[in-house]
Design brief:
With about 120 residues, this protein is mainly α. It is about 65% helix and about 0% strand. It is built from eight helices and no strands.
């Protein structure tokens, strides 16, 4: 995947005229309510609207977008990639989903795993 495509992917989630991701855009894309986003990010339910730039919230959203970039590279389709991140049980992680693992703070492990799958499929 080219650097330009990564840029475009992250850019679609940007809060207009800011340097951070939009909780509303991320929530809408992944199919959950903004309050659910707060739960997933382990922040207060009002944080996405009152302090959308909060570091813990931003980290969770950045991790989801990072994983989406890798999964999209594998599938060629961001919608399918989002579905898989939220729903596909991963045998290597005791059948937890990528979304669950990211909520647990294990985004780097998920991304490394997805990259290894993509590498195996390509190589």
């Amino acid at each position: 995947m080219s650097a330009a495509l990564h840029f475009t992917l992250a850019e679609q989630f940007r809060e207009p005229n800011t340097l951070y991701l939009s909780p509303v855009r991320v929530s809408d894309f992944f199919g959950f309510k903004v309050q659910e986003l707060a739960e997933r990010a382990h922040v207060h339910r009002n944080t996405p609207t009152a302090r959308p730039q909060a570091p813990l919230l931003q980290r969770y959203m950045q991790d989801m977008v990072r994983a989406l970039a890798v999964a999209s590279e594998m599938t060629g389709d961001t919608s399918r990639a989002a579905f898989l991140l939220r729903n596909e049980p991963l045998k290597a992680f005791d059948y937890k989903t990528a979304d669950t693992l990211i909520q647990e703070g294990r985004a780097d492990a998920v991304i490394a795993y997805l990259q290894s799958l993509a590498g195996g499929a390509a190589g």
